[in-house]
Amino acid sequence: DQQVKQNSPSLSVQEGRISILNCDYTNSMFDYFLWYKKYPAEGPTFLISISSIKDKNEDGRFTVFLNKSAKHLSLHIVPSQPGDSAVYFCAASFPSTGNQFYFGTGTSLTVIP
Amino acid sequence: GAGVSQSPSNKVTEKGKDVELRCDPISGHTALYWYRQSLGQGLEFLIYFQGNSAPDKSGLPSDRFSAERTGGSVSTLTIQRTQQEDSAVYLCASSPRGAGTQYFGPGTRLTVL
């Protein structure tokens, strides 16, 4: 049972435009969410996180939005750069299983120069 | 400082053989996780170690899978009597505590022929 879903396996965006990556979850107990970025042949690297007490967290070109009522998370990259081309995973956890993160299947982003 | 390292980077084995995958976490990180990513799938949680506590083995798919962590540092994931469906990238991650950002290694790509 996939509790964290990324329904778009791939996304292509022109350089300089906004990239929006989406993530949906089913468990309303999730209280901590993260985005990871993964290049080929490398492990995922942490990008940005958000706690359920917030609805937005910004770090440079990256902003994560959380809509708890819709159980929806999104990552905005503005402006998109070719180096942003990678697979992006969202992940979620909740207090009683702080040790276990549930990951989505990933969205492959291609930024076209 | 050094990140999470994993060895080997690639492993090809024959069905029925046993394999051992190694993970060296970041020094001082008390939490260590194993995940696997099968083709087209998200990261699947396997097992979690936190300090000297009993590991959370809830994600291990069968009793052919086991893991240990010696001295609170290096971890070995063992798969006995490998099957073709075990083919995946096995990722190790560590974190400074039991929750929060996880730092991933580059993974071991296991191919079972």
Note down, in words, how this protein is organized.
The complex is a heterodimer of chains A (113) and B (113). The mean pLDDT of chain A is 92. Chain A has no helices and eleven strands. Chain A is mainly β and 113 residues long. Chain A is globular and about 45 Å long. In chain B, strand 6 and strand 7 form a beta hairpin. In chain B, strands 2, 4, 5, 8, 9 and 10 form a six-stranded mixed sheet that branches. In chain B, strands 1-3-7-6 form a four-stranded antiparallel sheet, with no helix packed on it. Chain B is mainly β. Chain B is globular and about 35 Å long. The A-B interface holds A 2, 4, 6, 32, 34, 36, 41-46, 49, 89, 91, 93, 98-106 and B 4, 31, 33, 35, 40-45, 48, 50, 56, 58-59, 91, 93, 98-99, 101-107.
- How many β-strand runs of chain A? 11
Oligomer: heterodimer
Largest sheet of chain A: 6 strands, mixed
Structural class of chain A: mainly beta
Helix/strand class of chain B: mainly beta
Helix content of chain B: under 10%
Q: Write down how many β-strands of chain B occur, each being a DSSP E stretch of 2 or more residues.
A: 10
Q: Please compute the radius of gyration of chain A using only Cα atoms.
A: 13 Å
Give Rg of chain B in angstroms: 13 Å
Strand fraction of chain B equals over 45%
Number of helices of chain B: 0
